[in-house]
């Protein structure tokens, strides 16, 4: 293996799925002997493994200005929908940073919110280095949205955007598409899609449909997210060890579109009315809920764990559950699904996005028909009545060790990096 210096660029340090995936990959690469660094636009935490472009008070102030401006203007120009949209009007150059200049590979992750707009992305071409870009959502190949739902405008040149207040053929989404097209003609980069669904989405896009994309999943810390004895984990959460525990993540409100909360509520209502289901034997546990959030009523006893900041404790929470339910309607490769499976807890989810890359139907979980609350309830009931729960739990853990472990994912990235370096003009 050749010596490699890899620098990962992300807007934030570990808050959000992309930030966590970026740091996990860097740690996995370092464990495999690679010189890997993470550089972020704005650093919230104190993790010494992460460096930032915004160190001085002036740099921090400018970053905050860019981030807030980007978010404010996007919100002002968008309808009141819960679909994130980026204008990418603000940005900053990174090509003179010593870690970027000295790297053999520049690996981009989530670079929105005033960080790398199309102009500064194109500027990376001046460094004449291989560039890898992991798509943690759809923004790189749309005119602004991060989550597409049913919109297919990105198949053409965007425009007539359903998110914008002022929409038309030459609206902001189309103009953003044109800016991206110009930048991409100047910049050669290799796409990494964490899921088959994301790779297929890229192929449909007018911006990047002809580009090469390699499917390499995100990884996870398998020594942290590991199984604990379920009865003991339940005791830690002060839950009766005999209870059948359902777990789900934070849901902002009944109206939240992206996370599919209404389907979860409906599925639980359906489940509670079925014969053979003992309501008093089931407990719902929700983590990550924010204070003062509008929480819906559930038909089962519900425990709210709040925000969990320590991964070791989060692993025990997953281990306490007999099933993790995610009613998400569009997700690339959600961390919560991977974390749950790694802790030997089966997952019940809709057949959408990258979830089928992780959940194998009736092997380590249950894939319900998309937007079908009845089938979501079927999945929970299937696990509830399973006589061989331990076999499914073992299959969940094994699926992560086999396909998503640090060693496996690091090796796939290293192979890609070496291939790209070999293709560089000598």
UniProtKB/TrEMBL annotation:
Glycosyltransferase subfamily 4-like N-terminal domain sequence ranges: 16-222
Matches recorded under CDD domains: GT4_WcaC-like
Domain Glycosyl transferase family: 235-391
A molecular-function term among this protein's GO annotations: glycosyltransferase activity
SUPFAM superfamilies with a match to the protein in the record: UDP-Glycosyltransferase/glycogen phosphorylase
Annotated InterPro entries: Glyco_trans_1, Glyco_trans_4-like_N
Keywords of the record: Transferase
Keyword Glycoprotein attached: no
Keyword Lipid metabolism: no
A Pfam family per the record: Glycos_transf_1
Listed Gene3D superfamilies: Glycogen Phosphorylase B
Protein name according to UniProt: Glycosyltransferase family 4 protein
Organism (species): Pedobacter roseus
Source organism phylogeny: Bacteria, Pseudomonadati, Bacteroidota, Sphingobacteriia, Sphingobacteriales
